[in-house]
Amino acid sequence: MENIAVGIAKLIEQTLEIRGTCPECNAALYGWKTKNKDGSDRCAPTCMACGYYALQLKVDADTNKRYVLSLRKKNHDLFKYRSVITDHALFDKSLDNYQTKEEETAVAMTHAVDFIKDVLSGNPTHMILSGKSGVGKSHLCMAVCWAILEDSKYTKKVLFINYRELLERRKASFNDQMENKNQIALLQDIKTVDFVVIDDLGAELGGNGIKDSTSFNNDVLYSILEARQNKALMVNTNLTSEEIKNAYGERILSRILKNARQHSMQFLRTTDKRIKGV
């Protein structure tokens, strides 16, 4: 019996080496001296006293890594392929390439950074950007979307919705059963994801003058805002608050402004970036 024990001990000495201490019983952890062809360990270290497998840590780490990568892809794809955008070049906009040469854009950047922190903290905060076309409102909104996705390590679900295009798609879906189901599902996503941008609110009213919103428009908008009044939301518009009230009504204005006291920004003097080419 002693010879067997000695033989086993010699075999262990020849083939295994100590790789640390077992976290369960403080005995030695043993691993193979030889490696796989690619240089990796044949097996994670094992405790012969209690049977603890360091491999389990690796398995757990690998499982967590796969989960993180899967979640990242899922929420990245949700953002890229479920957002409603007319110009996909907008996806290239970020905080890094947002121009802050003018006073208002610099202030807007500061507001945006604070807003992002609020959203990542789980606060149901709203941010409103208003002002004429071309001052970078959509750019900043897209930049906020990317920042929330990346800073949350893609654990947040985010959508960017051009409101006029959303309405057009919703109307077009009425005669297409499959597309109608898709648009209903999209509206549900807009109401429930962690963060949503409503882009270019008011453009669907058409023309340079402000006219009353249609009942269809109001119904869609109110259903979204009602669902998101206690969820993170960002809205950009060419309209003033008074024009929003006149076009959509007091009820919709109040839903937009809810939780937006600290994060409202109006562009009054910023130049049109499309004309200046910056």
From TrEMBL:
InterPro entries attached to this UniProt entry: AAA+_ATPase (IPR003593), IstB_ATP-bd (IPR002611), P-loop_NTPase (IPR027417)
SUPFAM superfamilies the record matches: P-loop containing nucleoside triphosphate hydrolases (SSF52540)
Segments forming a coiled coil: none
Gene3D superfamilies: P-loop containing nucleotide triphosphate hydrolases
Domain AAA+ ATPase: 123-271
SMART domains tied to this protein: AAA (SM00382)
PANTHER family: ATP-BINDING PROTEIN RV3427C IN INSERTION SEQUENCE-RELATED, CHROMOSOMAL REPLICATION INITIATOR PROTEIN DNAA
Name of protein: AAA family ATPase
Organism: Enterococcus casseliflavus (Enterococcus flavescens)
